[in-house]
């Protein structure tokens, strides 16, 4: 939607768009990167560089949550307008746990509402409290008491924390009271050390030969072929050594499995890969797959089969990877 906003003094763009009826997925807290607008007149900020590609910023794409304007501003807004809430009789909830954030979606067959909330440390108490508080607020808006089923997916560390050390390897359905969640049941897709269920949902429909790079506090590499190989590399995005680590890992996979396609996350963690055939990915497939899994036992069974094909690669103990790392 194209807008012309007028003001005679410095004004928060976030507050103005909220007043105009637009909804920010994370409440405008700067943690999700989804409040996108096209406004070339606005300067690029550090938050833009974190979530947007160079090409997007060149085309004038900006994030609205951290901007101010002090004169007439022409922009194209990609945010959804807030809509009147309706009553839901049999809602379900999909939760994706990332590094310090949880994306919580309410669904009754289609996604009805979605928010991103921050939690503190990756602990059982912090994660459960964040989900519980936001889910209850959603239920109040849509006049329902709790969900029938809540799916919780994410990185293996986050799921391990959410489940408080319970044996959830292989996934399954559990009484929600076990996790103090406002639902009848909690469904946990398959997860094990080094292989998060959120990533598994992301690669479930990728074609064989695809190497997917996912960045969320760590870098995870997933190759889908006869076997599904995964490797994880923790590193800081501003660490120059990180560029060598990524390059060595991509070369390692290129030699071992000869991938035909590279798909990666749209943020500054993976810009180091620009010289080695990196292709930014579009919208995430994980939420669509999660929605399908909520509606079909067949999809759940397919995820279970996929999980059994996963093999974790310990790069640190791979001689060839060490050679590639040393060569720069």
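Q: What amino acid sequence fits the structure above?
A:
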């Amino acid at each position: 939607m194209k807008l012309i906003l007028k003001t005679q003094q410095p004004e928060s763009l976030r507050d103005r768009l909220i007043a105009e009826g637009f909804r920010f997925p994370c409440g405008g807290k700067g943690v999700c990167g989804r409040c996108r607008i096209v406004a070339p007149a606005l300067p690029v900020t550090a938050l833009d560089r974190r979530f947007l590609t160079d090409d997007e910023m060149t085309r004038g794409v900006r994030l609205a949550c951290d901007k101010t304007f002090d004169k007439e501003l022409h922009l194209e807004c990609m945010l959804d307008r807030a809509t009147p809430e309706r009553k839901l009789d049999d809602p379900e909830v999909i939760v994706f746990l990332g590094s310090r954030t949880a994306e919580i979606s309410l669904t009754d067959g289609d996604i009805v509402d979605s928010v991103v909330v921050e939690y503190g440390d990756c602990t059982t108490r912090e994660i459960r409290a964040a989900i519980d508080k936001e889910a209850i607020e959603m239920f109040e808006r849509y006049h329902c008491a709790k969900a029938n089923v809540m799916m919780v997916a994410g990185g293996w560390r986050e799921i391990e924390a959410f489940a408080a050390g319970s044996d959830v390897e292989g996934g399954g359905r559990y009484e929600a009271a076990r996790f103090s969640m406002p639902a009848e049941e909690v469904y946990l897709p398959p997860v094990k050390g080094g292989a998060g269920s959120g990533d598994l949902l992301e690669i479930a429909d990728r074609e064989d030969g695809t190497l997917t790079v996912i960045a969320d506090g760590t870098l995870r590499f997933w190759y889908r072929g006869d076997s599904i190989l995964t490797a994880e590399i923790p590193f800081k995005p501003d660490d120059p050594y990180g560029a060598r680590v990524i390059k060595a890992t991509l070369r390692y996979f290129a030699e071992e499995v000869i991938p035909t396609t590279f798909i990666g996350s749209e943020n500054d963690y993976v810009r180091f890969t620009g010289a080695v055939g990196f292709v930014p990915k579009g919208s995430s497939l994980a939420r669509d797959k999660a929605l399908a899994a909520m509606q079909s036992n067949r999809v759940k069974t397919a995820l279970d089969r996929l999980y059994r094909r996963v093999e974790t690669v310990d790069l640190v103990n791979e001689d060839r990877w060490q050679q590639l790392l040393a060569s720069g």
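Q: And what stands out in the fold?
A: The chain is about 30% helix and 25% strand.
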